[in-house]
Amino acid sequence: MRTVYWDYDTDTVKMIDQRQIPWELVVATFDDYHKLARAITEMYVRGAPAIGAAAAFGMALAARQSDASDRMALLRDLEEAGRVLNEARPTAVNLSWAVARLLRVATNEELEGVDEVRDALLTEAQRLADQDVEINRRMGYNGAALVSDGDTLLHHCNTGALATVDWGTALGVIFAAHEQGKNIHVLVDETRPRLQGSLLTCWELEQRGISYDLIADNAAGHFMRTGQVNMVVVGSDRTAANGDVANKIGTYKLAVVAKENGVPFYPVVPTSTIDLNLEHGDLIPIEERDPDEVLIVRGQPIAPVGATARNPAFDVTPHRYVTGIITEAGVIYPPFVKNVRETVERARKEQGLA
Ligand code: MRU
User: Fold this and answer.
1) Predicted confidence band at 354 (pLDDT cuts at 50, 70, 90)?
2) How many helices (H) and strands (E) does the chain have?
3) Three-class SS of residue 25?
């Protein structure tokens, strides 16, 4: 089952409610883009590529919700929908990338009439979702070529089928290596505060029968220093043009410890997550979420009444800690400033997005 999809029978968007996993598999239905935007903020759907696909289908939904009878009015409604969706979460660039891609279709002068635009938007959203799956597969096999039989990989957050339309990014590398028959083991960072590692990644590894151990985030350094990790694989929510990588909070610490211990550190990043407009990682907006996510765990307070907390959802790993960036267009190695741009521009041309 895909994480996000369009239901052609009811003309609605369906998304797995990831807040319920691993206890229940609930599929939520959206017939209103405002509600869909809220669901992105509240993390029914999360993971950069999944958020991008949800936003694309949200734009297709907005086109159907609009009662505009001329193209200018429809475009105005779509621009407003794009604004609302873009505000849902700031760091994952796939969100604004998808909205911009759909708005480009809406302004295509070859389309005649509002109904043709509505149909074209849905076709484009579906194309984006289908491409996401195909890109993840390619990326997975590009990364699996770096994995040896017997390796232990350390993984942070959730980057699997749930974080994408299907298959996954960093977990996609693990799935591909497993599919190739390599005997691998995964150390799963639990990923405080929202526990995407323990709740979602363990669930996905269980389903595929891949060997893993859940570890407290604080244990990662111990496993690397004692030679028990061959490779660190993570995803990214936005990677800057110079190869600086924004990803789930805690990634930076992993990368520094990996370098200190000679463990290769590979972000697995579709080119849709690379923002060539941002020269370096300090320009990436970092989402700061509700402190209660830190102070309360599954409904139970874990600090005294009155305790305060900070809750940045992402951090930036400078490219000097990155061994290589695994993309659908191959593995990008240093010098990143030159090679990231070249790879992304080539991939966008090949995908008809240039
Ligand atoms: O806050 P989340 O759960 O949306 O964060 C997700 C991540 O940080 C992933 O590593 C990232 O989106 C890339 S995975 C496809």
Assistant:
1) confident
2) 12, 16
3) coil
Q: Does the beta carbon of 329 lie inside 6 Å of ligand 1?
A: no
Q: How far apart are CA 212 and CA 180, in angstroms?
A: 17
Q: How far apart are CA 181 and CA 175, in angstroms?
A: 10
Q: Is the Cβ atom of 3 under 6 angstroms away from ligand 1?
A: no
Closest ligand 1 atom, CA of 273?
Answer: 13
Nearest-angstrom CA–CA distance, 350 and 31: 34
Query: Catalytic amino acids?
Result: 237
CA distance 248 to 143: 20
pTM for the full predicted model: 0.97
Domain 139-350's class? alpha beta
Which atom belonging to ligand 1 lies closest to the Cα atom of 92?
Answer: 12
> Tokens for 126?
């579906």
Contact yes or no for 37/85 (Cβ under 8 A): yes
Q: What is the residue extent of each domain of the chain?
A: 4-136, 139-350
Contacts of 147 (CB under 8 A, 6+ apart): 153, 173, 174, 177, 182, 184, 231
Token digits for 36? 């869909």
Kindly state the average pLDDT of the residues 283-291: 98
Out of 1.20.120.420, 1.10.275.10, 2.60.40.720, 3.30.413.10, the CATH code matching 4-136 is 1.20.120.420
Residue whose CA is at the smallest distance from ligand 1 atom 15 = 159
